[in-house]
Inverse folding.
């Protein structure tokens, strides 16, 4: 029996020794969800055994079980923390995936001997060849693009599963594989789009949407914001714009001034001999990246780029910004194949411990056609605004076939979870709270309550003022909106109110009609089409100067017609009655003493109120403007091009008691643009002319600011009605340095304060006939109210610090002219609330 056992053992021993184990898997970047190419995957020991992952991060390792150096397997790549996992030796086939976390850039081991760093020459050749690879340099091109956007609440601690807050959200934990490295997350939004891009050099780009699939957030403004997390960028450009911030590209013409580069590897990628370079910023506090890229040695085109926002970048609420890009070669040109952007939003830098919001946007391209003659005709016929949203809804089978890449298991789970989450009470409550904070209105079923900023106010005329408004929302009707607001002043013991109605024919090419009636006490003499709404502190915490307020009754009917995005006009008919508040002719009173000679031939007649009927026509042109579209209003998030506004207003005498015939023309051009590492600059130039003999309440009363708070729409050291013109031109310019100087000061840099400087100036004149008509109120005649520009332009300058606690701005302001005017303020310190990423 013993001999039989020995014989059996000897027979099976070679088989046991030769038994093999197969380990396969993928190495994934934990942030971008993309494979890590050419990563070392090995089993450590005295004689390590391993392989290198392919370009997609996949690997295959097969060996004899008996020869395993250890029972662990490790993945290691430059720029990532090493990750080790245990091998189950009882299995002969294993699937082991790695999710590597990015590590800080440490390149102390890299040595550059005598002579120039060879990586610098590689970078120069990339710059020298980049123009041939930039899409905007092509004569024309056409390509199909697939975009995928996702917004999630991340960093949810698995321990929260037992929290009462997550009682109705157990499914978010059930959809995560307990053996994976993926942390539970709460999806809020996921969308896919397929569209064609047509581009002609000199004419720009058109996008024609072919299909879309959306699940989650139903607020169109939020959806648009998510979809525009970043501007379109080309990594070959000198600057990459994300959330309005310009970051210096590692492939900028002057990239060697901002970055250090090192060659760390070389291999074949799809038959192209390629270098891998690592790069990091030379200085802290600049808008730069760190990361790595692969570049073809043959023609120095980019192949794979993986980069992250540098530490100490002065940007708010963004803990991480990641950009990943892949390129494919076509006719010796390297074209984009995949671009992915990941933005991690959170209130605290301790992102591993605090819940935050993470946005992911992926773009994939296929079927590039370059230099096709027939594209000219296709481009001309394409209309991006002509969209049939019903036709865009496609069956699941369509998406299975047309997606440029398959959804991951997590992405499939997101669609299921999003639809379930919308019915959970805590989710609905949180959504309402965020909406209330961002819009100022609280949604209750089909109604909106607010704005809450108008509940309480105070001014010299009304005393304490309490108000409340209610209006209908999209749940009531997506086309009709009705709104009413009422307020009571405990000082003047009078009710004020406002009623509005609006009907939208088309919100995508915004075409709407509306009516509004106002019975209120206001600080501004301009009609509701000419002035922005009064802020929360319009009459609160003012300087000790007379409160010049008007009891206004206004009726308005209007029609707005948008021809295409950024180009619209508006026609309005307005009837107004304005009565200055306070005792007439009593200069000691805090009221508004207004007097006017209505008849040039009879100076015994004096008017103390104004009644007018006006017809207004406005044109607005904002080329390539980006909009956040709502059901009843659009919010502009800007354009890289100047915005031009033209308006013509005619006063019609004899209609509804109107006393005046006059004409008013005005024009305005405004523009903002980034200025590289120095921040961003904005300006506004405006001017106009009024034709007619009028009370100064119908002329251009240049907006002053008598509150202690900074107002970006006013001349902040000018008093209300201090200057009046019938011919004028004004300039406003602001430079936001975004921490360009303060970021270079240790310790101060950690505060992330930002510098700002500005100039405002206006110059005008008043015709002789209007000086005579308003002589009773001119400062030269002892009146306390308006003056004209008889000593040159009015000017003021200022400098300040913004981004204090992320939302506070403090400015020091100096007045440069008209120091002797009544109640003139030569210097002041003002504060306001402002937020920029």
């Amino acid at each position: 029996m013993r001999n039989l056992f020995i014989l059996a053992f000897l027979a099976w021993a070679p088989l046991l020794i030769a038994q093999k184990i197969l380990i396969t898997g993928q190495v994934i970047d934990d942030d971008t969800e993309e494979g890590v190419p050419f990563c070392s995957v090995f089993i450590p020991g005295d004689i390590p055994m391993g392989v290198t992952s392919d370009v997609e991060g996949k690997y295959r390792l097969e060996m004899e079980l008996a020869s395993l150096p250890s029972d662990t397997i490790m993945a290691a790549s430059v720029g990532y923390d090493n990750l080790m996992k245990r091998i189950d030796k009882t299995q002969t086939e294993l699937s082991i995936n790695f999710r590597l976390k990015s590590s800080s850039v440490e390149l102390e081991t890299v040595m550059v001997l005598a002579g120039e760093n060879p990586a610098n020459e590689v970078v120069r050749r990339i710059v020298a060849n980049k123009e041939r690879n930039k899409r905007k340099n092509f004569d024309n091109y056409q390509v199909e693009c697939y975009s995928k956007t996702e917004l999630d609440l991340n960093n949810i601690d698995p321990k929260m599963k037992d929290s009462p807050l997550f009682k109705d959200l157990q499914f978010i934990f059930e959809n995560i594989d307990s053996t994976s490295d993926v942390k539970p997350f709460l999806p809020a939004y996921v969308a896919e789009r397929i569209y064609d891009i047509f581009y002609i050099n000199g004419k720009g780009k058109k996008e024609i949407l072919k299909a879309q699939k959306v699940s989650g957030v139903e607020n169109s403004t939020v959806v648009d914001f998510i979809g525009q997390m970043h501007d379109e960028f080309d990594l070959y450009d000198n600057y990459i714009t994300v959330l309005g911030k310009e970051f210096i590209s590692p492939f900028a013409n002057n990239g060697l001034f901002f970055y250090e580069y090192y060659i760390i590897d070389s291999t074949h990628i799809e038959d192209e001999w390629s270098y891998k370079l690592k790069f990091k910023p030379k200085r802290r506090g600049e808008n730069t990246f760190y990361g790595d890229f692969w570049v073809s040695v043959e023609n120095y085109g980019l192949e794979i780029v993986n980069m992250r926002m540098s530490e100490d970048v002065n940007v708010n609420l963004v803990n991480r910004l990641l950009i990943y890009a892949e390129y494919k070669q076509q006719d010796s040109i390297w074209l984009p194949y995949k671009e992915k952007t990941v933005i991690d939003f959170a209130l605290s830098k301790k992102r591993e411990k605090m819940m935050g919001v993470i946005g992911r946007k992926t773009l994939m391209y296929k079927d590039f056609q370059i230099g096709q003659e027939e594209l000219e005709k296709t481009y001309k016929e394409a209309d991006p605004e002509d969209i049939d949203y019903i036709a865009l809804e496609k069956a699941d089978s369509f998406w299975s076939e047309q997606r440029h890449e398959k959804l991951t298991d997590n992405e499939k789970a997101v669609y299921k979870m999003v639809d379930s989450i919308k019915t959970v009470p805590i989710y609905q409550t949180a959504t309402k709270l965020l909406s209330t904070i961002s819009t100022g209105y609280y949604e209750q079923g089909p109604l909106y309550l607010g704005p809450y900023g108008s509940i309480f106010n105070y001014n010299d005329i009304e005393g304490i003022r309490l108000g409340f408004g209610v209006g209908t929302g999209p749940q009531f009707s997506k086309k009709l909106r009705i709104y009413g607001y009422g307020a009571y002043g405990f000082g003047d013991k009078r009710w004020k109110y406002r009623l509005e109605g609006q009907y939208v024919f088309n919100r995508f090419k915004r075409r709407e009609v509306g009516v509004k009636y106002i019975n209120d006490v206001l600080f501004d003499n301009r009609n509701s089409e000419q002035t922005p709404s009064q802020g929360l502190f319009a009459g609160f915490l003012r300087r000790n100067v007379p409160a010049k307020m008007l009891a206004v009754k206004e009726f308005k009917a209007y029609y707005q017609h948008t021809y295409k995005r950024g180009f619209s006009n508006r026609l309005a008919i307005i009837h107004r009655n304005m009565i200055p508040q306070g005792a007439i002719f009593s200069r000691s009173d805090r009221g508004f003493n207004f007097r006017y000679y209505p008849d040039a031939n009879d100076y015994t007649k004096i008017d103390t109120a104004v009644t007018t009927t006006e017809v207004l026509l406005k044109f607005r042109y904002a080329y390539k403007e980006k909009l956040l579209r709502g059901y009843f209003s659009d919010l502009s998030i800007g354009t890289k091009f100047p915005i031009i506004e033209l308006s013509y207003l005619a006063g019609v005498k004899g209609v509804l008691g109107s006393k005046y015939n006059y004409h008013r023309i005005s024009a305005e051009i405004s523009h903002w643009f980034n200025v590289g590492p120095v921040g961003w600059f904005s300006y506004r130039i405006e001017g106009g002319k009024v034709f007619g003999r009028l009370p100064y309440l119908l002329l251009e009363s240049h907006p002053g600011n008598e509150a202690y708070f900074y107002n970006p729409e006013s001349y902040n050291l000018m008093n209300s009605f201090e200057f009046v013109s019938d011919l004028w031109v004004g300039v406003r310019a602001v430079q936001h340095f975004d921490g360009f100087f303060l970021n270079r000061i240790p310790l101060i840099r950690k505060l992330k304060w930002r510098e700002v400087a500005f100039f405002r100036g206006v110059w005008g004149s008043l015709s002789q006939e209007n000086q005579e008509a308003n002589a009773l109120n001119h400062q030269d005649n002892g009146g306390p109210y308006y003056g004209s520009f008889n000593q040159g332009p009015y000017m003021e300058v200022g400098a300040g610090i913004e981004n204090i606690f992320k939302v506070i701005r403090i400015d020091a302001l100096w007045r440069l002219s008209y120091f002797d005017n009544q109640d003139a303020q030569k210097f002041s310190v003002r504060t306001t609330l402002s937020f920029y990423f």
User: Anything to note?
Assistant: Residues 143 and 368 are 5 Å apart (CA to CA). The chain has eleven helices and 42 strands.
